[in-house]
Amino acid sequence: QPGYTEINFVQGDMFKYIPNADAIMMKCILHDWDDKECIEILKRCKDAVPRDGGKVIIIDIILDVKSEHPYTKMRLSYDLDMMLNTGGKERTEEEWKKLIHDAGYKGYKITEISALQSVIEAYPY
Questions:
Q1: Which of 12, 60, 75, 124 shows the greatest Cβ crowding within 10 Å of its Cβ?
Q2: Beta-carbon count within 10 A of 28 CB
Q3: Are 46 and 99 in contact (CB under 8 A)?
Q4: pLDDT per position in the chain (125 positions), as tens?
Q5: Which residues are catalytic?
Q6: Does domain 23-123 have CATH number 3.40.50.700?
Q7: Quick one: how far is CA 107 from the chain centroid?
Q8: Structural domain boundaries of the chain?
Q9: Do 31 and 60 form a contact (C-beta atoms < 8 A)?
Q10: Rg (Cα) of the chain, in Å, rounded?
Q11: How far apart are CA 68 and CA 41, in angstroms?
Q12: Could you give the angle at which helices 35-48 and 93-102 cross, rounded to 10 degrees?
């Protein structure tokens, strides 16, 4: 890609094989799938990153229904949209934590950004 000298974009079928990489980034991907499929995808990602310093970067919505954040209503509408159109869903932090743990990851970190989504760094090792 022009302008990115140290980043290579590689396509793959996340249900069959994910090519090896230092890090894997998925933006607005996991909300399309149910928990079982997300765990399968996350396990494949785990197998594709190195044991030393590898991570999976997830950019997706984190729901907090009690929040008074200006984006809360929009995030909830995306949750409804995902349920109706894909069978997926937006997830709370607790749901993300369980998903990441069930896929065998050792930890994660969430960073809020100025967007509907947050950045979740999942550490497999």
A1: 124
A2: 14
A3: no
A4: 567 787 877 777 899 999 999 999 999 999 999 999 999 999 999 999 999 999 999 999 999 989 998 999 999 999 999 999 999 999 999 999 999 999 999 999 999 999 999 999 999 99
A5: 31
A6: no
A7: 13
A8: 23-123
A9: yes
A10: 15
A11: 32
A12: 60
